UniProtKB/TrEMBL annotation:
Species whose genome carries this gene: Trichlorobacter thiogenes
Gene3D superfamilies in the record: 1.10.150.130, Intergrase catalytic core (1.10.443.10)
Domain Tyr recombinase: 348-540
Keywords: DNA recombination, DNA-binding
Pfam families reported for this sequence: DUF6538, Phage_integrase
Protein name, UniProt field: Phage integrase family protein
PROSITE patterns (UniProt xref): TYR_RECOMBINASE
Methyltransferase found in the keyword field: no
Record GO biological process: DNA integration; DNA recombination
Length: 579
């Protein structure tokens, strides 16, 4: 292959490819794509270019084909992919022990599937009649949008192709409900599952040939994996740095060989070697320029089991991805992560702040006009469950009324980041925060023309919360507690525990804290709870009489120090705090 896809600038290599003319509109009018290869090494750059050029050709070809009118066979293919993926995900959840948690959940799930079946059955009926067709399209629209995003295709709303895909997906949802109903009733030999049992096995040679045709060395697959996750913004800068380092360890210890030739026994050997490595094996005095085997020979203390498992889990994700995308015919890394030590219930392993900790926090907080984030961020997380970076990256536009309810909007607009797709959510502002003057503070910032809630915080590798997190840990240890497991993230666990103790349902709690729904019914088909329902649950978060008294004292200090930001606007909250 020539080098027309690669050029060098400033000591680093870049990938370059021309975009077919008929696709310019999808790239904002750009005629070519340029991307840094993040290396000045010619051999590594050439390897990356080979993979990227092949993938670009496949992607462009796919886009050109989908740009033309899609036929019924293609629509059915997409719908079938959704069907098989959904049912496979459900079985994977059962295999991983994430299915029903108690016998009583079985009936709830059956009722849920019945409701979903009725909804999509009605949608199909609406689609059959011209006068009600629009209502049918709207009923299935969220699912169609989700599938189109996953497939990377764009269909004009209301076009014959769009309507066709809507109908096909609605039919597949009905099939999902039928199969899951059978499974929940103990019939695992239903027609669908029985068909899977007798399906023809994958031809491993065909898979191997396909991988070889695209440069199937382990390094090539690692590059493809990292490029996809970087391009689709699935990783933060920190995750990218960590995963790149972890996968480079895999490459060095295993050697760059065809990925299809890697056996389970080889990977067991890799794990045995990995546990001997010290933390940060490429950093530190005396390690410069040494191979990993030479670093092991130094006899340094090995990394902890937690760190080893972090490596193994990230590598397991890589092999799972490679298997899903047909680079390998079987996942040879399966079963190689380490089991966690059993220390009792999962809920007991999470470090939450005690009542005395929270009282100590409230007694230690002081409002400083120059550093308002040090006062507000811990309180917001305590009463909303927002993650550190979610609070630190808030814009003023992210605090707004939704259906008459003041809410925090967690989103990935602009340079903001979220941990998972489920993290995008609305969380009502707790009345305690309103009473302390948060909304008044926000309004004052708006009047000044501010954009972000915390102007002093700057985005770093770990997001907007990196510097604040370091400050908080010092504050936490000096003012609140010396207990190792209690950190900023403990606010999130404390909020979650308060929801649980107040009897809030798992599905509402999951939406509030930004976790995926525990059942396929709610997760894939259920609509989000409305803001008023969420507010009722948030109102139930109450940390007891001692904390309420400390809040009254905190409020008094704000007034006495002449830094009161405004009178609370939540009816009844002030009365509650005084009790």
């Amino acid at each position: 292959m020539g080098h027309s896809f690669m050029f060098r600038r400033g000591g680093r290599y870049y990938f370059r490819v021309r975009i077919p003319e008929q696709l310019w509109e999808y790239f904002g009018g750009s005629k070519e794509i340029r991307q840094s290869l993040r290396t000045g090494t010619y051999e590594l750059a050439r390897l990356q270019v080979k993979v990227l050029a092949a993938r670009a050709a496949v992607s462009f070809d796919s886009m050109v084909r989908y740009k033309a009118s899609m036929n019924n066979e293609q629509l059915r293919e997409i719908a079938n992919k959704f069907l098989h993926g959904t049912l496979a995900d459900s079985e994977e959840s059962r295999n991983a022990g994430l299915g029903l948690r108690a016998e009583g959940d079985r009936q709830k799930a059956l009722v849920g599937y019945s409701a979903v079946f009725d909804t999509y059955s009605k949608a199909l009926s609406l689609l059959d009649v011209a006068a009600t067709k629009e209502r049918g399209l709207e009923a299935v629209r969220p699912l169609v949008q989700q599938v189109c995003e996953q497939e990377g295709i764009t269909l004009e709303y209301g076009s014959p192709e769009y309507v066709g895909l809507t109908r096909e997906l609605a039919k597949r949802v009905l099939e999902v409900c039928k199969v899951e109903d059978s499974r929940l009733n103990g019939d695992h030999l239903n027609a669908y599952d029985r068909g899977l049992m007798y399906a023809a096995p994958v031809n491993s040679q065909v898979v191997a040939d396909a991988v070889a045709a695209e440069g199937g060395l382990l390094s090539a697959v690692v590059i493809a994996y990292t490029q996809e996750h970087i391009t689709l913004k699935k990783w933060t800068a920190k995750t990218e740095q960590e995963n790149t380092a972890i996968l480079s360890v895999l490459l060095e210890l295993l050697g760059d060989k065809p990925v299809t030739s890697i056996s389970h026994r080889e990977l067991q050997g890799f794990r045995s070697t990995l546990v001997k490595l010290p933390p940060n094996p490429r950093k530190g005095k005396g390690r410069e320029g040494k191979t990993l085997q030479e670093v092991i020979a130094l006899g340094l203390p090995p990394m902890s089991q937690t760190t080893v498992n972090k490596y193994l889990i990230r590598i397991a994700s890589f092999f799972k991805w490679a298997h899903r995308h047909k680079y390998i015919s079987s996942n040879e890394f399966e079963g190689l992560t380490l089991a966690k030590h059993k220390r009792g219930k999962q809920s007991e392993e999470r470090s939450i702040y005690s009542t005395s900790d929270l009282v100590q926090l409230l007694q230690s907080l002081e409002f400083d006009k120059a550093r308002p984030e040090q006062f507000w961020i811990p309180l917001i997380s305590l009463y909303s469950g927002l993650r550190l970076n979610e609070v630190c990256q808030l814009h003023l536009t992210d605090i707004k009324d939704h259906e008459g309810v003041p809410c925090f909007s967690v989103n990935e607009e602009g340079d903001k980041e979220v941990k998972t797709a489920s993290s995008v959510r609305l969380v009502p502002v707790h009345p305690v925060l309103i009473d302390l003057g948060l909304l008044d503070y926000v309004e004052k910032l708006r009047q000044r023309g501010s954009v972000r809630l915390w102007g002093r915080l700057q985005k770093q590798r770990d997001g907007y919360g990196q510097a604040f997190g370091k400050w908080y840990q010092r504050f936490n240890r000096s003012k609140i507690t010396k207990e190792k497991g209690k950190v900023f993230h403990s606010f999130r666990h404390t909020f979650t525990n308060a929801l649980k103790q107040a009897g809030v349902s798992e599905s509402v709690s999951a939406q509030l804290i930004g976790h995926g729904q525990v059942t396929i019914t709610f997760g894939r088909y259920g609509k989000d709870y409305i803001a008023s329902v969420l507010l009722e649950s948030v109102r139930l978060v109450d940390y007891g009489v001692s904390v309420a008294a400390a809040l009254v004292e905190l409020k008094g200090r704000i007034v006495c120090n002449n830094t009161r930001l405004g009178k609370g606007s939540a009816s009844g909250v002030a009365v509650k705090l005084k009790k």
